[in-house]
């Protein structure tokens, strides 16, 4: 069973002993708005549990992780941002990194990009044999890019460069367009690969 990713925002607010924050923090508000928008758009469908805490009332919690300047954003037990408005790309990357640890890719997926001839060939091969798939453009969808890279590296190794397309069929890693072609030769029934009828 998957657990929601825990995200904590420490904003410039709260009190501790005689000290109280009276001036609101604009970057804290921006960070909260960025988190909300990213969860609705780039990370839709990924369960994330958001907790907002007043920094001065909980200053020792982020300090244990080396952070002291609000706004502070923590994903799991790692600080991903502090002291400035959150970079949404960093947030997407860190949430996806956590999510890939507990969720496997399912179904038929092609990760690619526009203008890539090998991506076009892979999609054409799948279309030709009638295999439906989800297509994700890794240039336009940052969540797809950050999901693809660690998934592929787990199969090809950390030092091998990642190219596109990257293909999964029935939840299993296939590889690129050449690997797809070989997979189709061995996994499709004869009628799907040879539809010529001999009338003799």
UniProtKB/TrEMBL annotation:
Domain Glutaredoxin, chain residue ranges per copy: 109-174
Residue ranges that the Swiss-Prot or TrEMBL entry lists as coiled coil: none
Protein's UniProt keywords contain Disulfide bond: yes
Pfam families: Glutaredoxin
Record-level Gene Ontology MF annotations: protein-disulfide reductase activity
Keywords of this entry: Disulfide bond, Electron transport, Redox-active center, Transport
Keyword Transport attributed: yes
InterPro entries in the record: GLR_AS (IPR011767), Glutaredoxin (IPR002109), Glutaredoxin_subgr (IPR014025), Thioredoxin-like_sf (IPR036249)
Family the entry assigns: Belongs to the glutaredoxin family.
Name the record gives this protein: Glutaredoxin
């Amino acid at each position: 069973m998957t657990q929601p990713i825990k995200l904590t925002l420490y904003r410039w607010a709260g009190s501790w002993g005689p000290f109280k924050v009276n001036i609101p923090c604009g970057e804290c508000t921006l960070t909260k708005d960025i988190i909300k928008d990213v969860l609705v758009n780039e990370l839709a469908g990924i369960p994330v549990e958001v907790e907002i805490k007043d920094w001065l009332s909980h200053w020792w919690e982020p300090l244990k992780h080396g952070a002291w300047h609000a706004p502070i954003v923590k994903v799991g037990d790692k600080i991903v941002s502090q002291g400035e408005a959150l970079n949404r790309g960093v947030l997407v990357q860190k949430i996806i990194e956590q999510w890939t640890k507990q969720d496997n890719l399912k179904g038929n997926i092609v990760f690619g990009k526009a203008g890539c001839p090998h991506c076009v060939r892979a999609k054409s091969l799948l279309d030709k044999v009638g295999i439906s798939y989800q297509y994700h453009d890794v240039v336009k969808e940052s969540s797809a890019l950050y999901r693809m890279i660690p998934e592929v590296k787990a199969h090809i190794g950390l030092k091998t460069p990642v190219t596109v397309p990257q293909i999964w069929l029935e939840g299993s890693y296939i590889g690129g367009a050449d690997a797809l072609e070989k997979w189709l030769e061995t996994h499709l029934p004869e009628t799907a690969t040879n539809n010529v009828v001999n009338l003799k």
